[in-house]
């Protein structure tokens, strides 16, 4: 790779030869048989430890160049002869491996065919007779340029061509012509280049998570770094992905060198050109490179491959954005910057910082960038990550509530969280947020049943848990527990016990309440309890369920969290780990344990503060705003004469002003509704309380149609449909069509269009009815609690309240909580039609205004909305 081998000249050098020390021309040519014998001696020297991997590659390069130079002189391949020998492949890059083919081109200046054949036979036959692997061709400059035009693989190979011997002007003509042609044609060829790489990845798989990785062709392998070099030659990217030296993997150069050394030892140990690292060779390779055992080797391979994978993603995206525009596309305005969150905007298909963002003064900016990426499906710009890595300060401990909320939004986005977390991790930012992550980063599993490294398994578990948040009453603890449940691995002790202690440390840093820190620690400590007991103990024995209930302290919330975590953990382990048999056993155990656990404490209304009571007794309308926890969080108290439809209009006014409700309490006093909302502005500063008071009065008078305006605002939202934006600018999503095609996903310049906004839930919405005994009821006789669990959307509380009011139900009080992107709302209702059918109709209409779930992912059980009667307070399926 030119840019990885400075001694061979920079990647931008059109000559391709670069400055190299002159080699003496021997008087007596070396026979090919001597070349083969010398190769064998070098390999023996390598086995004895006299030559390390880089040294062996360099000596092999020198040996073959020496032989080719002397043989070329013998055959008359000299300056001004009209012939030259050009090396491509490993020899062209100056990194020849022990059993790599010699990739050679005999270039001639349209010489007589008989003479060319004679020279070619004199060059090829000695190598064949000595059993030296050879990939050869005979070309004129126009022929070689034509081949490069028609074949992407040939073009990529010729970009690494290097003059060996003969007519250097002829070689320069080809090498310079290839590079100029590559730059000129890259706009039209870029989709084919991307498709070529994707085909290779499909065949060879992902190196970082493959049992026997293909170091050369797999995703994150050597070919990808060489592709980065080709994009650098096209002047579309610098190929470095803006990684800091202290980032995991330290950048593609270092990662490339590690994989190249491992591949060199693999050749030497296998005694043939093998690209896949087999388990039986791993210990020997690790020992030869002084890495350690096969697990240490697997960790190095994973780390290097993930660094290269991140780099190639950034390189392809940067190259796509740098493609020159043509035709009418030149006249189009530059892509606009669309605000997504405070200090975060979308520009040209990427997440970037707003112009007024100051990372050095905004510790929470990292998480806002990551959550915006997960919500929109847009990648984070490499320059943004680099800027955050350089300037963003550490979050103070405990974290402010805003930072925890952004983390929960990220974790609640399902598998859309994987790419942002990987980008943060490769640039060193994820380790700042979770210093404990370093112990599990790229840690290979000890059990073959696991598909992923430990750190990726944690992310996958959290992603699966994100699609199950509406099953539990504490979705925030579910995704946090999923993220850290195996954090104790790799520390030489029982990972459940070590992890429980780490969970206390992490929970306190996140700013959780003490009781929630304890619950999170108990989740980690007992995350294997239900699968272990269900598959190894007799469930018909009453002592089995009793032991589970006792171990969990008869905590109903902990039991439902562990049941859901067990499924997410199994789905993230590997194919076939979660199935009907295991699911039925765990569900049976959970049902039996639930019968032994008392019902949870029902939700109760909060007491009004003296200030709120004073506002209510003053009568009329009032909107009072005051700071809450965090620089971007505010408490809004709204007071108005109580009447039907009031809650919907109050919540709607907040949403229309770009205020996202994190929590709310809905109560009354003396004939006035007293509703308090904790809100976060989507962008900028909140509006004045007086303005919202006027809007509320106009909405009550019917001068403002709140729901219609909410629909319009949602349709104009800058947040695009997740997954609708092409991951590679310049290539239409999933089609590989050329830039400038008529595909609706791209514009005439080959750049992705921003899709029409449409919000999709990760988890299906649920409505749970709770009938309470009079003894523990916080409501009046005849009232019922309706709990809604769903993903959030613009104006959700206003929409749900409008449905409730349309059904003639009266909201006596309500408690609203937005935990990340998941809403858990409890309404105390006086129903107009308190029958089973009436409740079902109301629940169905409420669910209809919730975000629709995405298509079910493979392995998901597909649980839809459930309406539980009686005293059920758990999302765990109960039959």
Topology:
Blueprint: H1 32-47, H2 53-74, E1 83-88, H3 89-93, E2 102-108, H4 113-129, E3 134-139, H5 141-150, H6 152-158, E4 162-166, H7 168-204, H8 222-233, H9 252-270, H10 279-288, H11 294-322, E5 337-341, E6 344-347, E7 350-353, H12 365-376, H13 382-391, H14 401-411, H15 418-426, H16 429-433, H17 454-466, H18 475-484, H19 495-510, H20 514-525, H21 529-536, H22 542-551, H23 556-573, H24 580-595, H25 610-618, E8 622-627, E9 634-641, H26 646-656, E10 659-669, E11 672-681, H27 689-700, H28 706-715, E12 766-770, E13 784-791, H29 796-806, E14 810-819, E15 822-830, H30 836-848, E16 867-868
Parallel strand pairs: 2-3, 12-16
Antiparallel strand pairs: 1-2, 1-4, 5-6, 6-7, 8-9, 9-11, 10-11, 10-14, 12-13, 13-15, 14-15
Helix pairs in contact: 1-2, 2-9, 5-6, 5-7, 6-7, 8-11, 9-10, 9-11, 10-11, 12-14, 12-15, 17-18, 17-23, 18-20, 18-23, 19-20, 21-24, 22-24, 23-24, 26-27, 26-28, 26-29, 29-30
Question: Mind explaining what this structure looks like?
Answer:
The chain is of the alpha+beta class and 879 residues long. It has 5 domains: 2-184, Tetracycline Repressor, domain 2 (Orthogonal Bundle), CATH 1.10.357; 205-322, Four Helix Bundle (Hemerythrin (Met), subunit A), CATH 1.20.120; 463-598, no CATH class; 610-717 and 756-868, no CATH class; 722-748, no CATH class. The strands form 3 sheets. Strands 8-9-11-10-14-15-13-12-16 form a 9-stranded mixed β-sheet. Helix 12 (365-376) packs antiparallel against helix 15 (418-426). The chain is elongated and about 110 Å long. The protein starts with 31 loop residues before the first helix and ends in an 11-residue tail after the last strand. Residues 454-555 form the HD domain. Residues 1-339 are annotated as: Uridylyltransferase. Residues 1-27, 720-750, 851-879 are annotated as: Disordered. Keywords: Hydrolase, Magnesium, Multifunctional enzyme, Nucleotidyltransferase, Repeat, Transferase.
């Amino acid at each position: 790779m030119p840019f990885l081998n400075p001694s061979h000249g920079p990647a931008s050098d059109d000559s391709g030869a670069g400055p190299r020390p002159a080699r003496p021309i021997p008087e007596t040519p070396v026979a090919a048989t001597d070349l083969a014998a010398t190769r064998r001696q070098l390999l023996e020297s390598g086995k004895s430890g006299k030559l390390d991997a880089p040294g062996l590659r360099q000596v092999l390069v020198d040996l073959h160049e020496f032989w080719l130079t002397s043989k070329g002189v013998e055959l008359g391949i000299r300056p001004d002869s009209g012939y030259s020998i050009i090396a491509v492949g490993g020899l062209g890059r100056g990194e020849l491996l022990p059993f790599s083919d010699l990739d050679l081109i005999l270039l001639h200046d349209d010489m007589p065919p008989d003479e060319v054949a004679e020279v070619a036979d004199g060059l090829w036959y000695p190598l064949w007779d000595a059993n030296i692997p050879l990939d050869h061709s005979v070309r004129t400059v126009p022929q070689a340029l034509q081949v490069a035009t028609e074949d992407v693989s040939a073009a990529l190979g010729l970009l690494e061509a290097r003059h060996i011997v003969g007519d250097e002007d002829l070689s320069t003509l080809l090498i310079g012509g290839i590079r100029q042609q590559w730059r000129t044609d890259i706009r039209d060829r870029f989709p084919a280049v991307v498709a070529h790489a994707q085909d290779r990845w499909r065949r060879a798989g992902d190196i970082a998570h493959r049992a026997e990785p293909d170091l050369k062709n797999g995703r994150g392998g050597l070919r990808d770094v060489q592709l980065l070099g080709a994009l650098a030659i096209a002047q579309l990217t610098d190929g470095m992905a803006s990684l800091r030296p202290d980032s995991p993997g330290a950048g593609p150069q270092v990662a490339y060198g590690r994989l190249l050394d491992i591949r060199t030892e693999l050749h030497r140990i296998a005694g043939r050109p093998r690209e896949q690292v087999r388990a039986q060779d791993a210990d020997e390779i690790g020992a030869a490179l002084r890495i350690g055992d096969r697990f240490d080797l697997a960790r190095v391979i994973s780390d290097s491959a993930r660094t290269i994978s991140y780099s190639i993603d950034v390189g392809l995206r940067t190259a796509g954005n740098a493609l020159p525009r043509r035709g009418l596309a030149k006249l189009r305005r530059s892509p606009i910057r669309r605000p997504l969150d405070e200090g975060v905007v979308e520009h040209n298909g990427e997440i970037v910082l707003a112009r007024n963002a100051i990372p050095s003064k905004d510790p929470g900016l990292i998480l806002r960038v990551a959550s915006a990426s997960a919500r929109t499906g847009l990648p984070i710009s490499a320059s943004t990550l680099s800027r955050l890595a350089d300037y963003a300060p550490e979050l103070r401990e405990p974290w402010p509530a805003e930072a925890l909320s952004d983390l929960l939004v990220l974790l609640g986005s399902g598998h859309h969280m994987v790419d942002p977390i990987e980008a943060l991790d490769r640039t060193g930012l994820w380790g700042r947020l979770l210093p404990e992550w370093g112990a599990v980063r790229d840690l290979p599993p000890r059990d073959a049943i696991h598909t992923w490294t430990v750190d990726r398994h944690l992310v996958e578990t959290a992603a699966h848990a994100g699609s199950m948040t509406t099953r539990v009453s504490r979705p925030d603890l579910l995704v946090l527990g999923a993220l850290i449940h195996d954090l104790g691995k790799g520390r030489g002790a029982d990972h459940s016990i070590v992890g429980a202690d780490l969970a206390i440390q992490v929970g306190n840093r996140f700013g959780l309440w003490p009781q929630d820190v304890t619950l999170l620690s108990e989740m980690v400590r007992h995350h294997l309890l239900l699968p272990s007991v269900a598959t190894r103990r007799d469930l018909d024995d009453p002592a089995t369920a009793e032991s589970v209930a006792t171990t969990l302290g008869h905590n109903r919330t902990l039991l439902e969290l562990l049941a859901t975590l067990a499924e997410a953990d199994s789905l993230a382990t590997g194919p076939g780990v979660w199935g009907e048999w295991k699911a039925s056993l765990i569900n049976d155990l959970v049902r039996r344990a639930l019968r032994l656990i008392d019902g949870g404490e029902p939700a109760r209304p909060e007491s009004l503060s003296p200030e709120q009571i004073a506002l209510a007794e003053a009568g009329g309308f009032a909107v009072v705003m005051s700071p809450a926890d965090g620089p971007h969080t505010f408490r809004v108290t709204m007071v108005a004469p109580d009447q039907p439809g009031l809650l919907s209009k109050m919540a709607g006014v907040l949403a229309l002003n770009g205020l996202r409700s994190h929590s709310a309490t809905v109560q009354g006093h003396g004939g006035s509704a007293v509703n308090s909302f904790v809100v976060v502005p989507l962008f900028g500063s909140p509006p004045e309380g007086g303005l919202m008071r006027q809007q509320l009065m106009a909405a009550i008078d019917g001068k403002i149609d709140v729901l219609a305006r909410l629909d319009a605002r949602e349709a104009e939202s800058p947040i695009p449909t997740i997954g609708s934006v092409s991951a590679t600018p310049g290539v239409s999503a999933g089609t590989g069509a050329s830039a400038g095609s008529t595909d609706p996903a791209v514009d005439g310049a080959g750049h992705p269009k921003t899709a029409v906004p449409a919000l999709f839930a990760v988890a299906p919405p649920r409505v749970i009815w709770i009938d309470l005994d009079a003894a523990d009821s916080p409501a009046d006789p005849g009232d019922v609690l309706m709990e809604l669990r769903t993903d959030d959307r613009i104006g959700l509380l206003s929409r749900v309240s409008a449905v409730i009011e349309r059904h003639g139900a009266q909201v006596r009080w309500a408690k609203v909580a937005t935990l990340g992107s998941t809403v858990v709302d409890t309404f105390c209702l006086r129903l107009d039609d308190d029958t089973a059918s009436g409740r079902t109709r109301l629940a169905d209409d409420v669910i209809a205004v919730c975000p629709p779930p995405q298509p079910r992912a493979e392995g998901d059980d597909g649980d839809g909305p459930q309406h539980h009667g009686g005293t059920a307070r758990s999302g765990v399926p109960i039959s």
